[in-house]
Amino acid sequence: MDKIFAPLDVNTKLSQSELYDNSAFYSVKEEMRKLTGIEEENQIDWVKVEDLSYEVLTKYDKNLQVLTYWFVARLYNIGYQSILDSYFTLKGFIFKVNINPSHRTSRYFDWWIDKTVDWINNNIKNIERDDVKHYIDEIKNIEKNLPNGFSELIPTYKILNVLESRVLKQDSSVDGSVTELESIDSDRDTQGSCCQVKEVTDKNSDENHQSLGNPSENNKLLKSNLLELQRIAEKMFTDDISDTKSYRIRRIGIWADIYTLPIAVEGGKTNISPPDINDKKVIITLLESKNWLELLRASERKILQYPYWLDLNRYSYMSLLELGYSNIAEQIKNDVYQFSQLIPEVRVTEFVDGMPYADLKTIEWITKKEKKEKIKDPGRKIIKSKKEIFIEIYDEAQTSLEIGRIDLALCQIELIIIAIDEYKIDEWEPELSIMFLELALEIYYKGKKKSHYLSVIQRISRIDPNRAMNLFRN
């Protein structure tokens, strides 16, 4: 692995123009382009990608994008053992090749981390629990020792979140949470019950909820849960394209933490990179050939990668109409309309290269919806308050619980818990807060989350001690 960041031989080193004509570089790029189409990761020859990437890095050019290809290829070829190797190699590469943090390098890191998280989600059952905990500790240590600028640039928290969540799930499945909860004597006197709640909750709350109230940790937790929502939505969509919930959940996952436009660089341009040219070609080809099913699949999946590319939503809308799912199509149009009402300028804003977030047809599509809403109720407030949004998520969580989707309900209720802390709902609207927390109790109970359950009881007791006591007894 030392050869990856060792100096290149002057006889083989290539300039940028020569590199693009190099057969190894061309072949690895060609293989990786499959990811921008409708083929899955298992269609890629990962051994070929690993070998060719290594050849490019050790003979021709210290190309950071190719390095991330090599990381992901080794992950598919070797397994989770390569994750630490990748971090160690990256650390050496940064120091010895002398690369600088920039917007372009952040795109490569984002891609590498996202692909690693996808792989972990699909293969976590094959990783021993002790190995997971060891990897968490090692990755945290490496992250601390990265040069200035790189720790913030590399979204390592995504990997740590998914690993830590798996450890917590394994721990909760081992400790028999529901059985232990049911064994607590509900006939104890009031003082005894409160002591039991306080003693157990304080301990578990310190260990498992120390992040609550910390804005930085809350943001990380929020991002982790939104990513989990995206993952669940993708699975539901893959299983059944007619599943209405998958479309709503996907858009909650990508838009729930977008409150303002990205940083403007000049005019209507922002610092957001445009969609990859190959991604655009795939979408346009499917649209022109009227391959509605594949256009729907490609558009919905690319929305996860390009949340600001609003045209994708219109392509999904068109495809669903053609496939006979007009109710889902209208739901998507409504969701896009609501998003554009929260950030009205989003429809006339551009990517960094000048490509608009929404083309003229998409702007017209949204505007027609806007006119219909105004005709229906001219005096109606179009923009939803945060309270309305949280109640919508509450309703979604309740529905998920009723249909037995505990995994989805857990993600949704975590968003509500974060909202309670972020906006101090328990202080300003205690009854609303209790309504949210009572649903959280039921979800955590059925999800066998003992420490979370007890922590919520304690939170309710701070607002209404009598209600907490009755809930605990029942």
Automatic annotation (TrEMBL):
Pfam families: ImpA_N (PF06812), T6SS_VasJ (PF16989). It comes from the Bacteria. Residues 19-93 form the ImpA N-terminal domain. InterPro entries: ImpA_N (IPR010657), T6SS-assoc_VCA0119 (IPR017739). This is Type VI secretion-associated protein, VC_A0119 family. The lineage of its organism: Bacteria, Pseudomonadati, Pseudomonadota, Gammaproteobacteria, Vibrionales.
